[in-house]
Design brief:
- This protein is α/β, with parallel strands linked by helices and 268 residues long.
- The protein has a domain of 132 residues: TIM Barrel.
- 38% of the residues lie in helices and 13% in strands.
- Strands 3-2-1-8-7-6-5-4 form an eight-stranded parallel sheet.
- The radius of gyration is 18 Å and the shape is globular.
- The N and C termini lie far apart (43 Å).
- The N terminus is likely disordered.
Length: 268
């Protein structure tokens, strides 16, 4: 009698960058969570972003790393408001412990909405929160990643919407376990100058997200960024983390074929 069919593990993609996915890249594909993990692994992804600990066993089954584990903060309700600290602190400590146990490299942190809070006041409040929890992250070997998001199109009011603000917070925290999730799509909208910004600040970035602009779809020749060039610049800097795809495939396109094409572009 034959044994069980082998799992759909695959070698990571060729090239110098390790690639991951956010599950929105599967768009309208008729796949359950495990099916998406299976396809991600088959295509050579090494990680899946933004999953909770109960999903970790399925990720492990397909050889996938849980990245940017959810830590309890939100885009609107983040750590820039002291009123949120107690609730988020408890959830983030749980997430750090779970991430460490699973070998997950990072936990996502979100600054929150300005809601009348000045950027300087918000930075002080974020600093107080991170300083209170960073020792646990350091002891567990887990990096806290604050995501840079645009406040122009998708997330009006979000505080950590400029690289300089995030980098300054990193400098004040002064820990190897607090860095930034540099979302290329979001920062193209807010700042542009993507390659130079990455080159000047790579020591503060521990993760990347991709998507095309305009539209936040796949990054083909209908949009304004050259991802082959961006990825080459990142790889040339010796980056050892993961670059995860977070676009939504254009309606009518096969999401599996689209993901394969996007991953091929990033093989540099």
């Amino acid at each position: 009698m034959g044994g069980a069919a082998p799992l759909a593990h695959a070698e990571p993609r060729k090239g110098r960058l390790r690639q991951g996915v956010c599950l929105g890249v599967f768009g309208g594909a008729k796949l359950d969570f495990e099916g998406k993990c299976r396809e991600a692994a088959r295509l050579g992804a090494v990680a899946v972003d933004l999953q909770d600990p109960e999903k970790f066993p399925i990720l492990k089954k397909y050889g996938l790393i849980p990245t940017e584990v959810r830590g309890g903060s939100g885009i609107k309700k983040g750590i820039n408001d002291k009123a949120n600290h107690a609730e988020i602190d408890a959830k983030m400590r749980e997430a750090i412990n779970a991430a460490a146990a699973a070998g997950a490299p990072n936990v996502i942190v979100l600054a929150g909405d300005r809601q009348g809070i000045s950027d300087e006041q918000g930075m002080d409040t974020c600093l107080a929160f991170i300083n209170n929890i960073k020792k646990l992250a350091e002891d567990k070997g887990v990096t806290l990643s604050m995501e840079l998001l645009n406040s122009k199109v998708n997330h009006p009011g979000y505080m950590c919407d400029k690289t300089a603000w995030g980098v300054e917070l990193c400098k004040r925290v002064n820990s190897p376990r607090f860095k930034l999730l540099y979302d290329i799509y979001h920062m193209q909208i807010m700042e542009g100058d993507i390659i130079r910004t990455i080159q000047q600040n790579i020591q503060y970035f521990d993760h990347f997200h991709t998507a095309g602009n305009p539209g936040r779809h796949e990054f083909d020749d209908s949009q304004e960024m050259n991802y082959a060039g961006i990825c080459k610049a990142i790889a040339d800097l010796g980056y050892k983390g993961i670059i995860s795809h977070e676009y939504s495939p254009t309606k009518g396109k096969d999401p599996i074929e689209t993901l394969e094409k996007m991953m091929r572009i990033c093989e540099v």
